[in-house]
Amino acid sequence: MNSLFSQEVPLSWYLLLSAALFSLGVVGFLIKRNLITVFMSIELMLNGVNLSFVTFAHQWHAVKGQIFVFFVMMVAAAEAAVGLAIIIAIFRARATLAVDRIDLMKL
Amino acid sequence: MHLILFIVFAGFCLAGAINLLLQSHPISSALSLIVVMTSLAVLYLLLGAEFLAAAQVIVYAGAIMVLFTFVVMLLNAGREERTLGSRAARAVGFPAVVAILAVLATVILHVQGLGVATLGEGLTNVRGSTNIEELSTVLFTRLLLPFEVTSVLILVAILGAVALARHGDGDPDAKPDPNTKLERTAAK
Description:
heterodimer; A: 107 residues; mainly alpha; 78% helix; B: mainly alpha; Four Helix Bundle (Hemerythrin (Met), subunit A); 7 helices; 1% strand; globular
């Protein structure tokens, strides 16, 4: 039990978790049929990438990776605001959120 | 202790992400995404990034997810219909995702020289300054211009969001009437 408390975690586990989160985000982007949930999957991918940035910042004892994450968060906030406004505009024009029926630009 | 905390919160993280995919109602997906983001904040704390942990809770789990839940409530989004994606997504997408995950896992597990993380080991340098001091020194001296440009970006995003989500074409007296537009789409 004492060894369990003092044990350290390999950084590759953090990187594996980040890869898994990114892949789950891609799967959600592919299978979800609701515009808002598709957008949430994109946020999930961004979070997976952020985790790997923080892990490498820890690995190299450099603060640059954390600054990258800071800027990604700022851009994600701006992106969420604009994206959700676009979703509201789409809903107002077409009265649906199903991505199968928002096919104006489809060939 | 670090191992236990990592396993618990990585489990929360993965469970939340999988639950996001399984739920059919958007509000359930939004709540599981909040679980993912809050557990990620704990993982940032374990990696010695305390400022980012706070920013993760405030910006992601707070601001962005409140925006998401507001939009879900505002649009009264119902259950989604399951179609399992298009044929292209099934034929190319899922094998590609599995391949990407396999390649990433192989690379990560074979790379040499990756260190370990222990509890309470932050980003302290030789001068003994803490992580937040280090971060703010770089952010407000060398990266001052990008930092200020970010504020302009957010201002533009606010203006764009207001312009996109506004009713009508700028006549403040015009009463918004969503019914006419809905009828037009239904008639089409």
